[in-house]
Design goal:
Structural class: mainly alpha
Order of helices and strands: HEHHEEH
Distance between the termini: 58 Å
Number of helices: 4
Mean pLDDT: 81
Largest sheet: 3 strands, antiparallel
Shape: elongated
CATH class of one domain: Mainly Alpha
CATH architecture of one domain: Orthogonal Bundle
Length: about 100
């Protein structure tokens, strides 16, 4: 078991140490997420929503509006990785259009 040694350190130093620990943990957490590498790889709704940084509701709305291509395999819906990247690029263009 590790022991905790409390000493007097400035609050700013404590905050920085906590930030560093949190950043490292986030890096480890994010590295465990498998990034698809093949353009034809099929992704789930949750994976696509995470990549596009939108809710599942928004993703479904975009799918129904034809803003993103999808493949219906029975009842599950899948998306090609290459189509998701195209939708992501289109989203970026729309966001910065004047």
């Amino acid at each position: 078991m590790e022991q905790i040694l409390l000493s007097q350190i400035p609050l700013s130093e404590l905050k920085q140490q906590l930030r560093d620990i949190i950043k490292e943990e986030l890096k480890i957490s994010n590295s465990n997420i498998a990034e698809p590498k093949e353009p034809g790889e099929l992704l789930t709704r949750k994976q696509v929503a995470k990549i596009l940084k939108v809710s599942l509701v928004t993703l479904d709305k975009w799918r129904k509006e034809g803003k993103i291509k999808y493949i219906g395999i029975g009842s599950p819906v899948r998306f090609k990785y290459s189509d998701v990247m195209k939708a992501l690029e289109n989203r970026r263009e729309l966001k910065y259009r004047f």
